[in-house]
Q: What sequence folds into this?
């Protein structure tokens, strides 16, 4: 039998290896939570900025989409209101047909009478008696007066249109 004081080198190497493994495992177990937190921190640091950029882009796209939805709703309501205007367009079409027919009738009547041109001067001259030999300039005066009246009427229409335009712009 061997003496109790004798040390077995093989046993000593096995004990040393076992104690190193236990020590290493204890070190890993003790440091494992901090290693896990370190890995989480790395992951968050790398993946968070792209996620934030994507979120900002999604919010921007959502706002744009809402704007487009409002535009579509407005367009749909405009189309529906145009559908409601159908009877008005039919009425306008009938009025245009009537006006065309009346214009054709007037042309036929004018061609039957043999008149080629009707003007303010001719309408005024029809009411003036022809037995005025002392006034040779009367025809020119009447023509000038008729031209002045027509130009004043055109100016009045133009100024009236401008007034309506400025009033509607102020509203």
A:
């Amino acid at each position: 039998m061997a003496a109790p004081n004798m040390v077995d080198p093989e046993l000593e190497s096995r004990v040393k290896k076992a104690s190193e493994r236990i020590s290493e495992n204890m070190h890993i177990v003790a440091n494992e939570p901090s290693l896990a937190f370190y890995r989480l921190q790395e992951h968050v640091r790398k993946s968070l900025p792209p996620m934030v950029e994507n979120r900002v882009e999604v919010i921007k796209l959502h706002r744009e989409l809402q704007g487009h939805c409002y535009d579509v709703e407005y367009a749909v309501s405009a189309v529906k209101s145009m559908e409601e205007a159908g009877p008005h367009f039919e009425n306008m079409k009938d009025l245009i047909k009537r006006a065309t027919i009346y214009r054709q009738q007037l042309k036929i009547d004018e061609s039957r009478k043999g008149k080629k041109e009707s003007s303010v001067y001719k309408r005024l001259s029809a009411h003036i008696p022809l037995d005025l030999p002392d006034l040779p300039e009367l025809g020119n005066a009447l023509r000038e007066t008729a031209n002045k009246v027509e130009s004043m009427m055109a100016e009045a229409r133009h100024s009236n249109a401008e007034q309506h335009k400025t009033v509607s712009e102020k509203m």
